[in-house]
Write a structure and sequence with these properties.
The chain has about 90 residues and is an alpha/beta fold. It contains three helices and three strands.
Length: about 90
């Protein structure tokens, strides 16, 4: 509805496969764990860079369903912390 009203949109996604299936009007993909779409907390430079890339996609993408892979890499091993479940599990073994 927003696009039909003339308001361009862009999705910043960490789920490339889902974005490729759904095909929003414009998508920029960030290869990062879900919930970290703009990078790590307090990494203001990376967050700003991703935001600016998303804004550029608003200006440049003219074909609906376009998906752009951004060049940012998650530079640390992703460790899922389930609220102490891992520590509790380790203590039980």
């Amino acid at each position: 509805m927003l696009e039909e009203a003339g308001i361009p949109t862009v999705v910043v996604s960490t789920a490339r496969d889902i974005s490729a299936q759904v095909k929003p009007p414009r998508t920029v993909f960030v290869n990062a764990p879900m919930g970290n779409t703009f990078g790590k907390p307090f990494d203001r430079a990376r967050q700003r860079a991703i935001l600016l890339d998303a804004m550029r996609a608003l200006e440049r993408v003219t074909v609906g369903g376009t998906l752009i892979d951004l060049p940012y890499e998650w530079d640390a091993e992703f460790d899922l912390d389930l609220g102490g479940a891992r520590a509790s599990q380790a203590a039980a073994t």
